[in-house]
Design goal:
single chain, alpha+beta, six-stranded mixed sheet, three-stranded antiparallel sheet, about 35% helix, elongated
Length: about 230
């Protein structure tokens, strides 16, 4: 089976009557739909998302496209199912687990789609990529940080970076200080202790330039016994 982003997100999509190459994901199959049945001339981002030389869209891309309220948000999908993870503990529900927990439990040997977005208004899934193994691709969209692109990182190193960041977060340092320097938070450093602050800062300084750092910082949360 060929896993695409939309197939992982909507594996039971109903088939259409056309065949050809999907103008979004590029897969060639039967059961496609005509692109013009789905779109009109006012549809946004036509040239950036679609291959306009192909007149069809696969059943999976059509199914996801038709449910923007469901899929225009953070997504984790693998063959076992689809989740819509959240950053804050306060927002957790059965199908919306904590991002930090998802990353820690993620099986490395499964094909997966990871879309980490802080802006649910933007359609990001056509830009995402499928990955597998420790080499992990996520689509990261965070307008406040000026980030909107696929990021390749190590899954193990992402987890390690998350653990270090959350340790500093639990100690009382705010995310802006964790992002730049713990020494900017003099009051917290005094409470934590200069030696412990120095050790944490040394670890964080070695990680801030890594591709894993921003995604880890975005999803980092304090322990369950503290406010997020």
């Amino acid at each position: 089976m060929i896993y695409t982003v939309s197939r992982l997100m909507f594996p039971d999509a109903p088939a259409g009557t056309e065949n050809g190459i999907c103008s979004i994901c590029g897969t060639s199959d039967d059961g496609q739909y005509l692109r013009n049945e789905l779109l009109d001339k006012t549809s946004a981002n036509l040239t950036s998302i679609f291959n306009m030389l192909s007149p069809v869209i696969c059943r999976y891309c059509v199914a996801v496209w038709r449910e923007p309220k469901k899929y225009h948000r953070a997504v984790y999908a693998d063959p076992a199912g689809v989740l819509f993870p959240v950053i804050s503990r306060d927002s957790v529900t059965e199908d919306r687990p904590l991002w930090a927990d998802v990353i820690r439990a993620m099986p490395a040997d499964q094909y997966r789609v990871i879309i980490l977005t802080t802006d649910p208004k933007k359609r990001t899934w056509p830009l995402a990529r499928v990955s597998r193994g420790d080499r992990c691709t996520i689509f990261l969209h965070d307008p406040s940080r000026g980030i909107s692109n696929n990021v390749q990182l190590s899954l193990d190193r992402w987890r390690e970076t998350l653990a270090v960041i959350e340790s500093a977060y639990d100690a009382g340092f705010a995310k802006p200080a964790i992002a730049t320097s713990l020494y900017t938070s003099h009051k917290t450093a005094t409470v934590v202790g200069i030696e412990r602050t120095r050790q944490m800062e040394r670890e964080l300084a070695s990680m801030r330039s890594l591709p894993e750092f921003s995604p880890a910082l975005i999803i980092a949360q304090k322990g369950s016994d503290e406010s997020a």
